[in-house]
Design brief:
Layout: H1 2-7, H2 9-50, H3 92-96, H4 111-130, H5 136-156, H6 161-175, H7 183-208, H8 215-228, H9 233-253, H10 266-293
Length: 294
């Protein structure tokens, strides 16, 4: 089977692309529901811990039906109508329905189209780059997780622990077998990734009395270190900061944002993380050769 796909890389890429489309559709569910699930869990914990003291602050949470990634079934958030299976075909349904609900004609956020399209493109790219090899699996897993993190942070300015912690542990697990870097480099990368952003955030707060980075960013950089090792952390920090500066200055110039408007840093960190995962070693080797040549 592997030999067949090696001889027909286009067929393998098509299959992985279709798989990526299906995953992209599921990622839209994750992006929509995971923040609400985290909020409900937080409210329950608060109610259980402080309900007796602050009963008026925490209204009782009643769940007649389960709410998770599987239930209730896909429905329109406006009219609550349950969607038919042909309303959930990745990309095709959005285009066929012209971005509107089949029942109430309310607009479907363009995010649904973007997530599925990005999942498709990245899946095909990775399939062409790595082919039917084991290394393709962690790269696909990483890409899908970063997509979900990016859009959740863009919409809610949070990076759920339900995504960041598993990403850290899977990075350490893969590197137990020297998949990307030795285990020592992965462990140091996770530690230094978290501590470096924690230190930057504390210094920024002392200087400005404002929060500059969230703990979700700490954990995402820790995940990057766990996957790619401590050697890639300087590039990831520099690349994400540069991307954030370019976007921030552009939006300020266009007067789309004010100086006090918070900008989610997670998407820039996720992009830098993905670039480092694909081309980080090549970039690092090029920089070292350039430094030695000088």
């Amino acid at each position: 089977m592997s030999l067949f796909f090696i001889q027909n890389p286009w067929l393998f890429s098509v299959m992985i692309g279709l798989f990526g489309l299906c995953v992209g559709s599921f990622l839209n569910v994750v992006i929509s529901r995971l923040p609400a699930m985290a909020e409900n869990a937080f409210k329950k914990e608060c109610l259980e811990s402080f309900g007796k003291c602050f009963g008026e602050c925490f209204a009782p949470i009643t769940e007649e039906k389960p709410y998770n990634l599987w239930f209730p079934f896909s429905h329109c958030p406006i009219c609550k109508a349950t969607l038919k299976c042909w309303h959930n075909i990745p990309l095709i349904s959005y285009l066929f329905l012209r971005g509107k609900c089949a029942y109430c004609q309310s607009k479907i956020p363009v995010r649904y189209l973007l997530v599925e399209l990005i999942s498709l493109i990245l899946s095909i790219f990775l399939a062409f780059k790595f082919g039917p090899t084991f290394i393709l699996i962690p790269f696909l897993l990483l890409s899908y997780c970063l997509i979900a993190m990016t859009f959740i942070d863009l919409e809610h300015q949070i990076i759920p622990d339900d995504l960041s912690f598993p990403l850290i542990w899977t990075g350490l697990f893969f590197n137990c077998f020297y998949t990307f870097v030795p285990p020592q480099a992965a462990i140091l990368g996770a530690m230094l990734g978290y501590l470096s952003f924690w230190l930057i955030a504390k210094l920024f707060f002392l200087a400005t009395k404002k929060e500059g980075l969230g703990y979700g960013d700490f954990k995402l950089l820790a995940a990057a270190g766990a996957w790619l090792g401590w050697q890639q952390l300087p590039f990831i920090i520099l690349c994400s900061s540069l991307l954030a500066a370019i976007v921030g200055i552009t939006f300020l110039g266009l007067k789309k944002l004010s100086k006090d408007t918070p900008i989610a840093f997670g998407p820039f960190l996720a992009v830098a993380f993905w670039i480092a995962a694909i081309w980080g070693e090549t970039i690092l080797n090029y920089y070292l050769r350039l430094a030695l040549w000088r």
